[in-house]
Known about the structure:
By secondary structure, this protein is an alpha/beta fold. It has helices at about 10-25, 35-40, 60-70, 90-95, 110-120, and strands at about 5, 25-30, 50, 75-80, 100-105.
Amino acid sequence: MARILLIDDMPAVRKAIASLLRSGGHVVTEAGDGKAGLEAARAGGFDLVITDMLMPKRDGTSVLMELARTPNRPKLLAISGGSGALSEMDALRLASLTADATLAKPFDNATLLQAVDRLTGAQATGG
């Protein structure tokens, strides 16, 4: 079991990912934008932060850069599907400078759970 902060501005995507992670036995805290995500992350206690790259208020790049500088930081997983202004691959290339791993949207459930397990050392308990 890992404590995970999930930051994504798309409610349906966020809820689907959170549900999958919870079914795997993880404790998930959700944030709907980068600003709210950073506020939650500052409280600490997370093993992993999963952040979308393209969001309002604070984008994933600024979230990753700030969290990468914190002592005893959680592992960082960047996810992106791109947008009209920035391709998915460009967003993930940028993320790879500070993130421990990246995933392109859409990804399948097994790929996400494997990445989470690899980053946290946790083994999912459900399926």
